[in-house]
Amino acid sequence: MKNIDTKTITKLSILIAITVLMTTIISIPIVGGNGYVNLGDMVIFITAMLLNKKSAFIVGGLGSFLADMILGYGIYAPASFLIKGLEGFIAGSLLKKGIGKKYPIFATSISGIFMVFGYYLFEIFLYGAKGAIASVPANLIQGVLGATVSVLVFKALKKTKLTGGEI
Questions:
Q1: Phi and psi dihedrals of 96, rounded to 5?
Q2: What is the DSSP string of the chain?
Q3: pTM for this structure?
Q4: 63-72: pLDDT as tens digits
Q5: How far is residue 56 from each of residues 12, 49, 126, 128, measured CA to CA in Å?
Q6: N or C: at which end does the chain have fewer Cβ atoms within 10 angstroms?
C-alpha cells in the first residue's frame, strides 16, 4: 500500500466507520461470559471481497479496536486489532485463490474460525482455559453469522454492479 491515495484513504475510513457502527450498534452481550456478538466481521469480510487483504487487515484491526474502546472493552482492544486484522488478511488471501475464490463462504468461515481461536488464546491469559472456553460458542455464532451475511450482501452488491471498482 505504498503511495496510498486520497480515494483509498476515504474508502478505508468509511469501511472502518461502518465496522465500528456494525460492532457497536448491533452488539449483543454474551450471556454468562465477557464480550458480545456483533456484525463487525461482516464488514471485514466484505472489505476483503471488495478490496484486498491489506485493506481488510486495516479495516478489521482499526474498526474493531475502536469499537472495543467505545464499548468499554479496552482490555480487548489490542487483541482485537491483531485478531480482527488477521481475520481480514486471511479472508482476503483465501478469497483470491482456489476454493476460496470459487466458494467465498469457505474463505470467510475459515477466517471466522481463526477469530474464534485467536480470542480463545487471548482469553486464556485473562480467565484461564476454563473461563476462555465460555466465549467460544458466542464467537462461533459471530464468525458464522459474519461469514454468511457477508457473502449474501456481497452477492447483492454484485447485482447492483457497484463492485466494479466504484466502492
A1: -95, -5
A2: -TT--HHHHHHHHHHHHHHHHHHHTSEEEPTTSSSEEESHHHHHHHHHHHS-HHHHHHHHHHHHHHHHHHHT-GGGHHHHHHHHHHHHHHHHHHHTSHHHHH-HHHHHHHHHHHHHHHHHHHHHHHHHHHHHHTTHHHHHHHHHHHHHHHHHHHHHHHHTTTTTTT-
A3: 0.91
A4: 999 999 999 9
A5: 9, 9, 27, 30
A6: N
- In the block, which residue shows the cell 470467510? 108
Grid cell 454468562 is found at 32
Distance CA 51, CA 38 (A): 22
* Segment 31-51, tens digit of pLDDT: 665 567 899 999 999 999 999
- Size of the chain, expressed as the number of residues it contains: 167
In the structure grid, which three cell numbers stand for residue 76, read together? 480487548
- The rounded Cα 98 to chain-centroid distance in angstroms is 21
Alpha carbon distance 157, 151 (integer Å): 10
